[in-house]
Specification:
This protein is of the alpha/beta class and 336 residues long. It contains 15 helices and 12 strands. The strands form 2 sheets. An 8-stranded mixed beta sheet has the order 5-2-1-6-7-8-11-12, sandwiched between helices. Strands 4-3-10-9 form a 4-stranded mixed beta sheet. The mean pLDDT is 93.
């Protein structure tokens, strides 16, 4: 089976390297800058927060979308905002009937592919961990599993990733998983606004209090839509807001697994800001606000976080918002 990973950046290179190490044939499709860097180094280096490491010598990295023609399976690891253009390329080059797995955070990014590629089998997926790039080196800084929409044809992927120490699940009820993962990803914008490593940010209670309110809004929207959130952590989703609002000393004791992350790990949204790229906030907190409007559920905290990120993207505000300042903005919302 020939696998093409379309959008081979941090996540794509990490997933592809693990599949290649498990014996599958992988082609990476991505940007010229990364291709040149990898070709200069002659390899891709993978590592994780638990000390695992592997090297992929002379990886097959291309910038030519015609490589999609030879794919038996395509994994799309592009950002949500790039999916419209990706759908055009897939419609042009991908062979009829093959499976395309869209691996994006948030909600709705796969719709463009479904609309423009009716002859492809489009599936959804979620990567539950963070990968940070440093040149040709890709470091997995957090725990988390890969979740794929259930399809027996993806069992080979599941087995290969598990061989390499990556937990992978084929999910029958993917909506419940997607919304539960979105609940966790609501912290991405807070982390990016804070301009702090994830661990440092999560250890400050006011940041967590804001996150808890955003999570509670999501839970109300999901309930209105008839979606039961899947359990992706040691605690049920309904308990997470209560856990994260506990005092710092208690949170550190109770949330050891949540804090079992690389001290340097940051959210992908923070990385987007550093690279001057538009963020995916509309598919995360913005998606909660949009769904809440459809269901008649108020989501002021998620709306505020989305607006703050827009201001940062436009250069109207600098990242580095303190925990106290962010919490004060929530208090101001409550007084209106």
């Amino acid at each position: 089976m020939q696998i093409v990973i379309y959008g081979a950046g941090s996540i794509g290179c990490y997933l592809g390297g693990c599949l290649q190490a498990a014996g599958l044939k992988v082609t990476l499709l991505g940007r010229p800058r990364l291709q040149q860097l990898i070709e200069h180094q002659g390899a891709i280096e993978l590592s994780d927060y638990q000390g695992r490491a592997l090297t992929w010598q002379a990886p097959d990295y291309s910038t030519d979308p015609t490589v999609l023609k030879r794919a038996d399976l395509i994994l799309v690891t592009l950002k949500c905002l790039a999916m419209e253009d990706a759908a055009e390329q897939l419609a042009q080059y991908a062979r009829t009937g093959i499976r395309v797995v869209c691996l994006q955070n948030g909600l709705g990014s796969d719709e463009a592919v479904r609309h423009q590629c009716p002859d492809l089998t489009v599936l959804r997926g979620i990567v539950g961990f963070n990968v940070v790039a440093d040149g040709h080196q890709f470091h997995r800084g957090t725990e988390g599993a890969i979740h794929l929409q259930h399809d027996p044809a993806l069992a080979q992927l599941q087995h290969a990733w598990q061989q390499q120490g990556l937990e992978c699940h084929l999910e029958q009820d993917f909506d419940s998983v997607a919304w539960a993962k979105l609940q966790l990803n609501l912290n991405n914008v807070i982390n990016a606004l804070s301009d702090l490593p994830l661990k440092t940010e999560l250890e400050q209670r006011p940041y967590r209090q804001v996150l808890a309110l955003a999570m509670q809004e999501l839970a109300l929207v999901a309930q209105a839509k008839g979606i039961a959130l899947a359990r992706l952590t040691a605690l049920p989703p309904a308990w997470l807001p209560k856990l994260i609002t506990s005092p710092d000393w208690l949170f550190k004791r109770l949330a050891k697994r949540m804090l079992a992350i690389d001290p340097k790990a940051r959210s992908s949204m923070w990385e987007d800001l550093q690279q001057g790229r538009p963020t995916e906030v509309l598919f995360l907190n913005g998606a909660v606000t949009a769904a809440g409007a459809e269901e008649g559920v108020a989501t002021p905290v998620n709306q505020m976080l989305t607006q703050l990120m827009f201001e940062v993207e436009r250069g109207q505000r600098q990242p580095g918002i303190s925990a106290a300042e962010l919490w004060q903005k929530v208090e101001t919302l409550r007084q209106r």
